[in-house]
């Protein structure tokens, strides 16, 4: 999917002539999905004021259970208190530990909209309509930048270093102070927000499948695969 992934393969001894950088097909799927009609009614989003800065958050990773998740949710709660022009959509993971902490720290706030886990198509459309993404998911770090949405990564490390290097994502960590300051920075500094929103997505441009199909159909590829 990326130049750095190709470089990793070469360092591992994979033959360079068999490596082609195409981008990730997940971006193709995302860009097609947001072009499809999607009814968001009945999903718990009826009270969302889309004229505000809507934050989409996902948080469920095992390493964040307990104290890290508590700090994340506390930071988000205080950000919402400081920025009344913002609202939060939080599709809750089915894990009861996640739900208990989320409702303890964020429940009862008019700005917070809990939903059940969303299917792929509505989730893509919510991403497109959101202003900012907060997540500890891996896939969202690739997807959201394709829609021009800055991503704050709620983890101490990420397996998507290309996003950090490209400036499409920022490693916010899991501590209260770092999450709060990173979110407030992007919500109040228009230049910082636009720099991330317009950074080139390193994971693709929506044409990965076309490149893959063209490579597989090429005469020289058939020869290469036959000899390998």
Shape: globular
Head-to-tail CA distance between termini: 21 Å
Major sheet: size, sense and barrel closure?
6 strands, parallel
Over the alpha carbons, how many angstroms does the gyration radius reach? 19 Å
Q: What's the total helix number? A: 11
The amount of beta strand, in percent, is 5-15%
Order of helices and strands: HHEHEHEHEHEHEHHHH
SSE layout and pairings?
Elements: H1 3-11, H2 25-33, E1 53-58, H3 67-82, E2 86-91, H4 96-106, E3 112-115, H5 120-129, E4 132-135, H6 139-146, E5 151-153, H7 161-166, E6 169-171, H8 176-188, H9 190-197, H10 208-217, H11 219-227
Parallel strand pairs: 1-2, 1-4, 2-3, 4-5, 5-6
Helix pairs in contact: 3-4, 3-8
Any key phrases for this structure?
228 residues; alpha/beta; six-stranded parallel beta sheet; 11 helices; 6 strands; globular
What's a quick, concise take on this entry?
This protein has 228 residues and is an alpha/beta fold.
Task: Write up what this structure looks like.
This protein is α/β, with parallel strands linked by helices and 228 residues long. Helix content is 48%, strand content 11%. It has eleven helices and six strands. The chain has a six-stranded parallel sheet with strand order 3-2-1-4-5-6, with helices on both faces. β4, α6 (139-146) and β5 (151-153) form a beta-alpha-beta unit. The longest helix is centred in the N-terminal third of the chain and has 16 residues, at 67-82.
């Amino acid at each position: 999917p990326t130049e750095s992934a190709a470089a990793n393969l070469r360092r591992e001894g994979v033959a360079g002539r068999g490596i082609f950088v195409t981008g990730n097909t997940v971006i193709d799927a995302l860009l097609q999905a947001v072009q499809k009609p999607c009814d968001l009614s009945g999903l718990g989003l009826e009270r969302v004021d889309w004229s505000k800065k809507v934050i989409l958050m996902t948080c469920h990773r095992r390493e964040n259970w307990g104290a890290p998740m508590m700090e994340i949710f506390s930071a988000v709660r205080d950000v919402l208190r400081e920025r009344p022009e913002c609202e939060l959509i939080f599709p809750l993971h089915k894990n009861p530990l996640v739900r208990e902490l989320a409702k303890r720290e964020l429940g009862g706030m008019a700005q917070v909209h809990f939903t059940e886990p969303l299917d792929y198509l509505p989730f893509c459309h919510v991403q497109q309509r959101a202003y900012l993404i907060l997540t500890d998911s891996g896939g969202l770090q690739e997807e959201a930048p394709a829609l021009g949405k800055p991503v704050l990564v709620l983890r101490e490390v990420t397996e998507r270093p290309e996003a950090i290097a490209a400036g499409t994502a920022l490693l916010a960590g899991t501590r209260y102070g770092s999450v709060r300051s990173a979110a407030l920075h992007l919500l109040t500094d228009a230049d910082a927000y636009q720099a991330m929103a317009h950074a080139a997505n390193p994971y693709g441009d929506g044409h990965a499948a076309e490149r893959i199909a063209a490579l597989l159909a090429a005469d020289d590829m058939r020869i290469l695969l036959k000899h390998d």
